[in-house]
Each structure stands twice: as C-alpha cells, then as structure tokens.
Specification:
CATH class of the largest domain: Alpha Beta
Number of domains: 2
Helix content: 25-40%
Number of strands: 13
Largest sheet: 8 strands, mixed
Number of helices: 14
Strand order of the largest sheet: 3-4-2-1-5-7-8-6
CATH architecture of the largest domain: 3-Layer(aba) Sandwich
Mean pLDDT: 85
Structural class: alpha/beta
CATH topology of the largest domain: Carbamate kinase
Shape: globular
C-alpha cells in the first residue's frame, strides 16, 4: 500500500457503536481517549481529522439506566439526546488536555437534501478545520425520522467525506476488513487487502446485520466504499481497537481492506454526489443489459428505450435508483419523467416519444450529467 502520510490532508474517521462500547455495553472512555491520542498524532504530522462518531444511543442508554436498546422512537430519541451530550463531553475533555477544541456537528438527511443546506454544512465543516477544531459528527437522531434518516453512519461518513473533499475515509469496525466469507463460520475465509470495484460478487461476500448496539454491517460499509470509489476517495475498513491503527492506515501499512480505484480513474463531480448520496430515492428504474453496459462502460445517459421496469411514485426532478435486471444498484440520478410518464415511454425510442409527448423531445430518462454511477 502507498504511504499516504505526505499526500493525505483531510482524514474522515468513522467509529461504529460496537467499537465504542465495552463488553458491558457502556461507552468505553479509555478507548475514546486512545482514539483522540491517535487523532492528535495525525495532527502532529499535518493532518486535519473529522470524527464521525456512532454510539449516541448506547451512551444515552447508559446515562438513562436502560439495560437494553428501547424499541419505541421517543425513548430512542431521548437516549440519543442524552448520549450525544455524553459523547461530546468525553471527546472534548480528552482533546482539551492538548489544547484542541472539539466541535459537535449534528446532521439529518434533510439538512443536506437542500442544495443550500448541503453547502452550509460543507462551509461549517471547512471553517472548523481551518480553525484547528476537530469536528465530531453524528446523525441528529433526536429529531430524525425514517424518511430523512441516513440509515447508518457508514453512509453519513461517506457524505461527510465528499462534502469536504477528504483524501481518506477510515471505517473503524469490530472486524479487520472484508473477507472472502464469514470468518466466524468459515475458518478458510481470508481477508482481502485491496478492492478496486464493488460489484455484485464483492457485495455477496458481506454478511448480515450489525451488532446489538449498532445499525450497520459489512453491507453498509461496502455501500459507502462503493460510493467513494466513484468519488476517487480511498476507503479503509479496519479493526478499530487495533493499537495505533490510524497511524498504520495513513502510513500505508497492510491493515484492513483498502478500497481504491485504479490509477487514471476519472471520478465524478461533487454535484453528482449530492444527487446520489444526499437525496432520498423516490423510485427505481430497471435497465436492460445493453443499457447497463452503455451507462457503466461508455458513460451514456439512461434512455427510455433501455428501461424495462419502473417502481415507485415519483415526479420529474426526483432522484431514483438505477438497477440491473438482477436488481444490482449501478447508479442514482435525477429522472426527467414522472412515474406515470415512464410507464408510457419505457422501451421506446426518443423519436417515437416526441410524436405523442412533444414537450419531452430529445429528453433522456436520466441525463449523464445528473447520474452518479457507482
């Protein structure tokens, strides 16, 4: 692996709940202290670090005296409210010993769906870094509702990484990378050192859900890594409790699984990442094999003639998923037809569509400039 210590400036570090808590389910303050020491070590060699921290609900459960994760939303949000304060206290106390300020940034998907909100979030994070602050980012679970939730902090970290143009995204987990199979059940499974493309075969290597205190699993990590491959931002999944792991990752040592596109990869624009990662998809377009090849290999727009299926209710201008006939997600973009219109035009050539929908003359289903291809 390449030594990133010279050409990496901004590092986004995401820590999962299962890594942040101890065996009793309480927030492990000793681990957070060690993590902050590692962050300080990176700062000493000129790195700027953003922490995306899970664990608010777990910290709140401890503070409020719950012995298990509540199932009702008001109690979960109460745990998040108390837990966010508790977590920030721990980070701030450790960093303050070294004269470093800690800034809490709470986001919901609603904050970044709006283009202005997206840019405001970016400006805030950039200014905090300019001021020498270590931002600690979390989803604002106290007010977030299902339709505006990120779903897991792996994707939240990916969005933060694209927001600020990070040079590296590190996912600190309770497993030391991606394996060819589940190492807990298959002793022959081996860790994969490097991945250049997250396709259906790679996704099949991922296991199921996360731990009892977290919401993610390997699948969510692979989705985040897949998005950042398109952005040209390297992602490393590693064991968070491995001593000195952040320094090892930045130094390019062989730890975890590194996701990085091949040399010469042309990454997508920041606007496309806002479309593809921040927006909530309202539907799905299924393409035939020929259309999939055109989109992936030739950078083509999605044309109605290549659409063989449509799901969901959406309007022109909404964001939709783009999938293969097998259901594999290949991209996400802004559709130019409503769901009702798409039912009428799918499978048809543009000149045919223009005969009965002249206002749509020459309009692709999704223009390439508004399509994020994973």
């Amino acid at each position: 692996m390449a030594d990133l210590s010279k050409d990496t400036d901004i590092v986004v570090v995401k820590i999962g709940s299962s890594t942040l808590v101890d065996e009793a389910g309480a927030v492990d303050r000793a681990f957070i202290a060690d993590l902050c020491e590692q962050v300080i070590g990176l700062r000493s060699i000129g790195k700027r670090v953003v922490i995306v921290s899970s664990g608010a609900a777990a910290a709140g459960m401890e503070r409020l005296g719950f012995d298990r994760r509540p199932s009702d939303m008001p109690s979960l949000q109460a745990c998040a409210a108390c837990g966010q304060a508790a977590l920030t206290e721990v980070y701030a106390t450790v960093l303050a010993r070294h004269g470093i300020a800690c800034g809490q940034v709470l986001l919901t998907r609603r904050d970044v769906i709006d283009r202005e909100g997206y840019l405001n979030a970016r400006n805030t994070l950039e200014r905090l870094l300019d001021l020498g602050v270590v931002p600690v980012v979390n989803e604002n679970d106290t007010v977030s509702v299902a339709e505006f939730a990120f779903g897991d902090n792996d994707m939240l970290g990916a969005i933060v990484a694209t927001l600020i143009g990070a040079d590296l995204y590190v996912i600190m987990s309770d497993i030391d990378g991606l394996y060819t199979d589940n190492p807990a059940t298959n002793p022959q499974a081996t860790r994969i050192d490097r991945v250049e493309r997250v396709d259906a075969e790679v996704m099949e290597m991922a296991g199921g859900a996360g731990s009892a205190v977290g919401t993610g699993g390997m699948v969510t990590k692979l989705r985040a890594a897949r998005a950042l491959l398109a952005a040209g931002i390297p992602t490393v999944i590693c064991r968070g409790r491995q001593p000195g792991v952040l320094g090892d990752v930045v130094a390019g040592r062989s730890v975890g699984t590194r996701f990085e596109p091949p040399l010469g990869w042309s990454h997508e624009s920041p606007r496309k990442f806002w479309i593809g990662l921040a927006e909530v998809p309202q539907g799905t377009l299924t393409l035939d094999e020929g259309a999939c090849a055109a989109v992936i290999k030739r950078g083509a727009s999605v044309l109605p003639v290549g659409v063989i299926g449509t799901e969901g209710t959406y309007s022109a201008g909404d964001v939709v998923n783009v999938v293969t006939p097998q259901g594999t997600l290949i991209g996400r973009g802004t559709v130019r037809y409503s769901s009702d219109e798409m039912v009428r035009v799918r499978g048809l050539k543009l000149d045919v569509i223009a005969r009965f929908m002249p206002e749509k003359e020459g309009q692709p289903a999704i223009h390439r400039d508004e399509l994020l291809v994973f």
